[in-house]
Amino acid sequence: MSKNIIEVCGLVKKFESIIAVNKAGFNVEEGEIFGFLGPNGAGKSTTIKLLCTILKQNEGSVHINGYNTLSQPHRVRESVGIIFQDPSLDNNLTVVENLYFHAKLYHVPGRLIKERIEEALELVDMSERGNSLVRTLSGGMKRRVEIARGMLHAPRLLFLDEPTIGLDPQTRKQVWEYIGELRTKKGMTMFLTTHYMEEAEICSRIAIMDQGRIIALDTPGNLKRMVGGDVVTIKTGNPSGIKSQLDVNPGLQCEIIDNETIRIILSDSGKSIPTLFEKFGDEIREIDVKKTTLEDVFIKLTGRKIREEEGNAHRDRTKNFMKMRKEA
Amino acid sequence: MTGVSDSLVIATREVIRGLREKSRLFGSIARPVVWLFLLGTGLRGSFGGVAGVDYIHYIFPGILVMNILFASIMAGTSIIWDREFGFLKEILVAPVSRISIAVGKTLGGSIMSTIQGLIVLVFYPFIGIRLSIAQLTLTLCCMFLISFCITALGILIAVRMRSFEGFGVMNNFVVMPMFFLSGAMYPINHVPVWIKILTRVNPVYYCVDLVRPVMLGLTPDNSIWANLGFLGVFATIVLGIAVFLFRLEGS
Ligand SMILES: Nc1ncnc2c1ncn2[C@@H]1O[C@H](COP(=O)(O)OP(=O)(O)O)[C@@H](O)[C@H]1O
Ligand SMILES: [Mg+2]
After folding, report:
1. Which residue of A57, A171, A298, B4 could cross-link A140, Cys pair, CB 3.0 to 4.6 Å?
2. DSSP 3-state assignment of A89?
3. CB of B63 within 8 A of CB of B120?
4. For B42-77, b where at least 16 C-beta lie within 10 A, e where not — what string?
5. For B86-130, how does the pLDDT look when each residue is reduced to its tens digit (9 = 90+)?
6. A88–B86 CB contact, under 8 Å
7. Chain B partners within 8 Å of A324 (Cβ)
C-alpha cells in the first residue's frame, strides 16, 4: 500500500465572516498528481497556504509527509516546494541570485547548488537569461523561473497554485510540458490547483471545490462517468445491425436516431473507439465524438459554470498600491 | 549554526538589493547636506556655540544619526514591500526559523543604513572636525549599533502592516518626534518633565548621546555603558516582539 504524503482532516479556515475552507478532508498518496479544481474564490489557494504552513487553520489537522503543520511547521517546510499563484520572485535580483538565495535557504549543499541551478534553468529553457534582472522578464518567463526555483531543493511534494494563470495559451502549454517533465524526471508528488478545466485532465485524482467545500473527489474518468459519458455519433448504412451487436455490452447506451445514424454513450471514448473500428470499420461512414468535460461535471454538481475569467484582482491591487506610493 | 548562516543569507540579499539601488543610496545625501549647511549656518547665529563647541560641529553627529534613523526605518519597513511583491511568502515558507528571518533582515538593513551614514560621515573633515583613528573606529561601531536598533524598530512597526497606508502617520507621529526629542539639533535641558520622560524612553536620544561624545570629546549625559545597555536591551526587546508577531503570522 502506498503511503499518504498528505492527510487532511476536517480543515476549516475563516477570514472574519468568510469561511474560505469548510470542513475539507482528503488524502494524497505518494507519486500522485492531485488536482484542486474550482472557480475563483472557492478556497483553493487558502487550502494550499494551510498545507504549506503560510496560514494556520481554525479547525482540523494537516499532516504532510507525516508531520503536523501546526506543531512541526519546520519539518513540513523542509518537505515541500511551492509555486504560488501570485508572483513571489525578488524583482531586483537576477534569476540566478533568486535561485541561489532559495537554495541557500533550503540548505542545499554548497557543492550541489551550481549544478542544480543549471539543471533547473535548462529544464525550463531559461539558461540564457540567468543573469537578467527578474523585473526585465516577461510574465511567462517569471513563471518558468518560479517553477525552476520550486524544484531546486528536490522536494518530495510540490504545490503548484494556478501555475498557468494569466499566461497566453502557448505559454500555458509550455508550462505544462515543463511540469510533466519535472514529474517524470524527479518522480515528485504534485498538488495543483486550477480553474482551467482541460488542465485538470492530467491529474490522477481531482477534488472539485466550491465555496470552501469539496463537493466531489475522484479520478477524472470516474467524475465524468457521473455525468454519463462521451457521446459518439456514427453515420452508417446499417444502424440496427450495429445496435444489436452493441446491446450485448451492459455498460453501454445505444440509440438509433434515423435510418443512417446511431448514437452511442460511452464512458471512455478514447479507448472504445478503436474497438468500434475493429468491429464495424467497414460500415462506419462518419464519426463524431463529443467528449464529456470536467466542466460538465461541475455544472451537474452545482448548476453553475466555472467562470473562465482571469485573476485581475492582484494586478489591480498592485496598481492601487503604486498610486499610493506616488502620493506618499 | 544554521540559524546564523540563514540570517547571513537573508542579510546578503538586503545588501545586494541595497547596493543596486544607487539613486536611493546617493539620493539620501541631499537632506543632511541641506540641514547641515542651511540650518546649521542659520541657527549658528542664535545658538553660537553649544557645550563649548561650534554649533555646526554640535549638530553634525545629530545629522549623522538623523540620516541613519530615516535609512533604518526605511530598511526595516521594506518588509512591507516584500509582502506586497510576494517575496515575503518565499521567505516565510522556507525552513528557516522566524528569529533568523528577523535578525537577518535587521542585519542586512543595518549594514545598508550604516553605509548611508558613511555618506554623511565623510563630510567631517570639510567642516573642521578632527577624528583620531580610534575615534573614527568607535564612531563606525556606534553607527552600526544605532542602525541595528532602529532597523529592528522599523521591522517591528512593519511586521503587521499590510500596506503603506499607515506609514505616513507612523512617520509623523513616531519617527519625527523621536528625532526632535533626541537632542540631535539642540540640548534637551530646560524642558517640562513629561518631555524629559519621553526623551528617556527614546532610543534615538541614547544614540545621539553615544555618538556625539565619541566624535567631539564631550562628556555624555549618561555613561557610555548606560547608553550601550539601553540600546542593547531595546534591540533585544523589539526583535523579540517582532519574532513573536512573525510566529502569529497566518493565524
Ligand atoms: N487574507 C485573506 N483575508 C480575507 N479573506 C480572504 C483572504 N484570503 C482569501 N480570502 C477569501 O477566501 C475565499 C477563498 O479565496 P482563495 O482561497 O484565494 O480562492 P481560490 O484560490 O480558490 O480562488 C475568497 O472569498 C477570498 O476572498
Ligand atoms: Mg487561488
Report:
1. A171
2. coil
3. yes
4. eebeebeebeebbbbbbbbbbbbbbbbbbbbbbbbb
5. 999 999 999 999 999 999 999 999 999 999 999 999 989 888 889
6. yes
7. 163-165
What sign does the CA torsion over B126, B127, B133, B138 have?
Answer: negative
Chain B hits for A107, Cβ within 8 Å: 2, 95
Give the other-Cβ count within 10 Å of B22's Cβ. Answer: 9
Which positions ≥6 away from B89 have C-beta within 8 Å? Answer: A54, A84, A88
Residue/partner pairs of B134-142 with CB below 8 Å, 24 or more apart:
B135/B214, B135/B215, B138/B214, B139/B211, B139/B214, B139/B215, B140/B114, B142/B207, B142/B210, B142/B211, B142/B214
Pocket of ligand 1 (CB under 6 A): A 15, 18, 20, 38, 40-46
Which cell goes with A299?
455544472
Written as one string, the DSSP assignment of A221-233 is HHHHHHH--EEEE
Pairing label, strands A189-194, A157-161 = parallel
Chain B residues with CB under 8 Å of A106 CB are 94-95
Cβ-based neighbours of B220, under 8 Å, separated by 6 or more: B209, B210, B212, B213, B227
A263-283, pLDDT tens digit by residue? 888 777 777 788 888 888 888
CB atoms within 10 A of CB B202: 21
Residues of A with Cβ-Cβ distance to B2 under 8 angstroms: 107
B97 to A77: CB separation less than 8 angstroms, yes or no: no
Which CA distances in Å does B35 have to B32, B52, B146, B212?
A: 5, 21, 20, 17
Distance (angstroms) between ligand 2 centre and the Cα of A116 equals 29
Nearest to A135 by CA among B9, B24, B106, B20: B20
pLDDT of residue A98: 97
Rounded to a whole number, what is the distance in Å from the CA of B6 to chain A's nearest CA?
6
Chain A residues contacting B via beta carbons under 8 Å: 49, 52-56, 74-75, 77-78, 80, 82, 84, 86-93, 97, 101-102, 104-107, 318, 321, 324-325, 328
Judged by CB atoms closer than 8 Å, whether chains meet at B13 and A107 is answered as no
- What's the pTM? 0.85
Closest-CA residue of B relative to A53 is B93
Taking the CA of residue A76 and the nearest CA in chain B, the distance in Å comes to: 8
Task: Report the pLDDT averaged over residues A121-147.
Answer: 93
Q: Rounded to whole angstroms, how far apart are CA atoms A134 and B38?
A: 42
- Of A77, A87, A318, nearest to B94 by CB-CB distance is A77
